[in-house]
Amino acid sequence: MKQNLVVIGAGMASGRVLEHLTEAAPDAFDITLFNAEPRGNYNRIMLSPVLSGEKTYDEIVTHDDAWYAERGITCRFGERVLEIDREAKVVVGENGHVPYDKLILGTGSNPFMIPLPGHDLDGVIAYRDLEDTERMMGLGAGHKCVVIGGGLLGLEAAAGMAARGVDVTVVHIMGHLMERQLDEAAGYLLKKSLEDKGITIRLQANSKEILGEDGRVKALLLEDGTELPCDLLVMAVGIRPNVALGQAAGLAVGKGVHVDDQMVTSDADVLAVGECVEHQGAIFGLVAPLYDQAKVAAQTLLGEEAAFVQKSLSTKLKVTGCDLFSAGDFAEGEGREDIVFRDPARGVYKRLVLDGSKLIGAVMYGDTADGNWFFGLIKDGTDIEEMRETLIFGPAYQGGAAVDPLSAVAALPRDAEICGCNGICKGTIVDAISGGATDLGAVKATTKASASCGTCTGLVEQLLQVTLGDAFQMPTAQPVCGCTDLSHEDVRRLIKTKPLQSQEAVWQELGWSTRNGCHVCRPAINFYLLADWPLEYQDDPQSRFINERKHANIQKDGTFSVVPRMWGGITTPDELRAIADAADKYDVPTVKVTGGQRIDLLGVKGEDLPSIWSDLNRAGMVSGHAYSKGLRTVKTCVGTDHCRFGTQDSTGLGIKLEKVLWGSWTPHKLKLAVSGCPRNCAEATCKDIGVVCVDSGYQISIGGAAGMDVKETELLIQVPTEAEAIEVVMAVTQLYREGAKYLDRMYKWMAKVGLDWIKEQIEDPETRQALVARFELSQSIYRKDPWAEHAQDRAETYAPLADLTLEAAE
Amino acid sequence: MAWIDIGALEAVPVRGARVLKTDMGCVAVFRTGEAEVFATDNTCPHKGGPLAEGIVHGQRVTCPLHNWVLDLNSGEAVGEDARIATYPLRVEAGRILIDATELTRRSAA
Lengths: 810, 109
Hints:
Oligomer: heterodimer
Structural class of chain A: alpha/beta
CATH class of chain B: Mainly Beta
Order of helices and strands of chain B: EEEEEEEEEEH
CATH superfamily of chain B: Rieske [2Fe-2S] iron-sulphur domain
CATH topology of chain B: Rieske Iron-sulfur Protein
Number of domains of chain B: 1
Radius of gyration of chain A: 34 Å
CATH architecture of chain B: 3-layer Sandwich
Number of helices of chain B: 1
Helix content of chain A: 25-40%
Radius of gyration of chain B: 13 Å
Distance between the termini of chain B: 17 Å
């Protein structure tokens, strides 16, 4: 006697159940299939190729009318199920009742819509079914679309529409794309290739409101005030199991409809499969486990023994030209090790995560051919100890040569600028080498490359090596650190040339051998990036030495010192009172006058920093940056105000210079002084930049030092006006910021590039103006008080995460 | 095992650390990746530098005082014959949990 089977939802999981059932026991059930969408089962995960135009809807239909007819399945498509009456064992549809012996819930999931103001405007859609896809396909070239969500679905929607000529912006709240499947490095590569497809990606972007006009979407407003105009807004931020019917019927429901290992719900006659279920606390969005569930459900219905087991999953993104693969677990846990492989020339990144002798996770970008082999090792828990050394090269390992350190230079296009001073491109240099310039001197003579400041010398030598092979003997350059073979000069040049605008870009494109650098290279790279890309790159506190991260100098006992700025060494009774009050309030053990004409409060506890800063801020004082590789102080004498020998207002100029320069980051610390006459009471001639006032103007000299080395400054230029003196100081500071190796004081940089070259740059009015403009641009970001910012926004990070001693006391 | 919730994962910056005060002294809680965390003693075996203030790279930290590098998995000082204690951590639903057995033993005794 046939049993009545009712299936609610014609999706991929329930469709697979029907396939198994009708194949194994074609006559066991009278089947009725409800579906709210007016069609049968189609391959939902292939909607992206439909959207991009690579497939048509007909090609992705899994079960057509004939398929259902052959199997005698009664289809009630386009009809909603209103209710399940479990007592009477009847399903109530819009067009009538159907009694059941067994029932399968396959109600799938609903897209999650963020309840932003304006989410119900016309033109705000999800990406879930064919209707959404058709809506996107109908947008037409030249229109604008914003996609919220940088996960799998959001990116496929974005790429599909971009392929149709739509101007697409993806807004993602996290720091990198597809953060659940990818690590930062692969996320960076993915972002880059999507940007190459013309898609704009905005990371760490918080949506605030959807703006509309006459009931239609007009733009998305971000928290930071940016407005992104759009004709269509797609929300692809996740799915929620659709449990409404099951819940109304009184089934046990959590995040999804609860099922046991046999896919049976809390009612023995009701099964559930697919995205609507919750199994052992997990819900499901990828297709592989759904198919496993379908098979188990079919076997259960047929009285066979079967159990659903959760397995690790792999993901591939269906975007043409973005070859990425991720599997297993690559982010969490203690005791794990990484094996990283990068080949910048081919844009390949692979990372394997090992736990003991087992592979537990893999992320790959650019070359995913071995993905399934790695996935197999993960699933099977294979012991990889034996092949550990060569594992990352995949099954076809053939000797596994190390990554070529020259590949970054080899990968540069011909029009990449190598020598910034003389504007010489890679192509010109390679042609010169091929034309017979086979050593550095000859290349300098024929092309002028590396003939000026010389910072690109390393790159020119690498080009000689790439072009001439073994015929060229490379001089050994000192690499930045153990993470790379490139020197500081090479890295700086490549950051400008390629261009590289993020740490991830540097690690990947320059073939770093570690996941995210080390304590030697990270602060250097962070400085190079912020100096070269003030607007594009955001300073990373985690790549700074503690003093610059916490804006105070760490002392040997772990306490800190606090030095408020005293512009040009000038203070007031009110400021001094505020400093004295702060010293009392925070039990400061030592108060010292520094050599830079200000006051140091030594021995402040880390937890007290934000509050002592707030107190000093209230008295009008800001950070003195006594801890930074940046502007420290401008020391002054009293000049014409009081001194009978003073020739100019040295105090005034010192204050002006300090107000212009403060907050700027430099390769090493930067100390200035202004003396009002050649008696030089401010000791200007042993500073990085010193100004000595004379009757006819201002003598500006650079490259002094009074530390491990003692150096006298050398004259750079004499100028007649104060305004010009300020301009020159800004220009030479910027030149130093742009060219010097990290942790080279100005005198060391000067020794490398030569004072004559610096003079040429500063004396040329056009170059000087350009340097000043670039310095001002950078200062528009960095000329601000970090103390005020930290005291306001980050105070909690200075306190302990938790205090267990308090709990113990309770 | 006695798992105690010590705070949100988000409260520790990626490639950064925060301090946890316990009866046995300060413990440094490191976050080396989006959801990768470690806990060790906060005190460098060299001259007692506060490790939570160091630069975090890969699964290591560099002491801010004299650049000793400590492996967060094993607690071993790289290239030196010294080590620090490590403590089991778990991340669950965006919260960090620490096994407090070791951390409260001394105070109970």
